[in-house]
Amino acid sequence: MGILQMLARTLDLEDNAFIEFCKHLVAVLRLLYYPPQEPDVTELERDFSAEAILLQDTTGGLQVWNKVSLEWIDVTAIPGAYVVNLGNMMMRWTNDRYFSTLHRVINKSGKKRFSVPCENAKEGAKNPPITVGEWMAGRYADTYGTFEKNTIGYDIGLKQYPQESRDSFNVLKHVGGDGPYIQRESYGISRDPPASCSVDQIIMIKRHGERYPEVETGAEFEELLKALYSTNITFTNELAFLNDWTYFVPDDCYLEAETTTGPYAGLADAYNQGADYANRYGHLLDGYNGSVIPIFTSGYDRVINTARKFGEGFFGYNYSTSVALNVISESANQGADSLTPTCNSEKNLTTCAALTENFSMFDFPQFDLAAARINNQTGLNLTGEYILGLMQLAPYELNARGSSPWFNVFTADEWVAFGYVNDLIYYYCYGPGDANMLAVGGVYVNASLALLNQSPAHDDNITPIIAALGILTPSSDLPTDSIAFGNPWSIGNIMPMGGHLTIERLSCEATAVSDKGSYVRLVLNEAVVPYQSCQSGPGFSCPLANYTELVSASLPNYVSNCNISASYPQHLDFWWNYNTSNALNYPAGPLGCQATTTLI
Q: What InterPro entries does the entry give (predicted)?
């Protein structure tokens, strides 16, 4: 019987419980050399594998720590015998039922000591939240770098760059705009300015941080859960957690508010990004000499609170005196002078309405398969439409609690389909699939070359800007009867909670292929996104003059396209005419229910 089989039995598991997680060896055999040494210079260690098998000779020197007596115990050296140390991976596998052995080697013999450890560190484990392969690859990379293997698995040398993709599936990419912030997939372009350039101006628009569901969505959740619990069954299998689970919204007053707890807390997200941007762009404040800097925000409390926390992170102790928070009304009579412009034009909402009102438009079998699987296990009678609603619970719970058992109810394929449903809604309702959204996004884009600002807003106000810039517009409309894999309009990449678009103006010296001058590049969720037709500048940037021409030529006129009344503002003006009061930098009193209060 093997060691892993014996360990499994002690935990009342099947003999092959650990073995079935294992495929290929990460390390086969090592030869370690220990010169004579004193105890006070000996390094303590725990093996990061599942187990380490050590071949013994007569030299000895291995000691293990006794946690009860708090002393080091010598391991008697028996020539030809093997000592088994359990490692960090086994500790993680067993939820700390077994502990990783803290040990050291003290060679007091005066002779050279060689150790031949065989580490049973195997790939392929499916025990969440990390596979053994990822665990071991990370530990070896930290310690030794990465290793090249020949066809039979033996190490043949250091590998400068890993060949495996360690994030082939991240569910946060497939929850649309409902889940926590995640950086956009990069094209490999450095986030730092090109070597010949410095950033001399930025314009940034940011979505509010992670939040609780909106009022309407919260009501839908309660109806779903009420119907589920009304069956009065004892839940089993994937839904067994529901026997003890509680809804993650403590009170209706929390609806629409940013979350303040857990690792994905929305207010913490905003503060942390402010601090990160202070490190990246703080040099832009050098010439302000105490001048008050405006931060612009739209009128919802959750968006205002994002602006406040971002400001606190960016300006630190100077936030209270250096910043003037300007709250821009979301009223339609703001016309073009708004972060949230509205469009009065009659528009074709056929596809948008169908997507949001008629579930049959989502002709994806994954939801029906999920319903059939759960119905077979529980005796319930769920539909594909019901499944779509249950899946939406997961990212919102993640925003508030930091984890959600709902993610484990559904398969990766089902999450891919869920993400594409969100792509469709944002494409046809708030993106390139609605021509009027180009005009709405053009208000901000037209003013984007003017002034450095940080401007929190909503997701459906930012996606029109992405559409107007044209950087991620698909070559044809997204199909509603199949998933468009490789689709650039992926909302998980474009506008998660806390998503942000930064327009950088670069001041660059001449290079062998580009002139001295100003260039522009777009950074979406911390990944550089170049224009396909304008990338001749350093770091694939676009010359400022070309950028201006490119953007201006493609934008429809907002005022005429959206039938804006002549009595309303005809262009964005608040960037140049703003107040310098810090009266709104902090709330005047306790925050009320987020769903019902706005300052303006």
A: Acid_Pase_AS, His_Pase_clade-2, His_PPase_superfam, IPNS-like_FE2OG_OXY, IPNS-like_sf
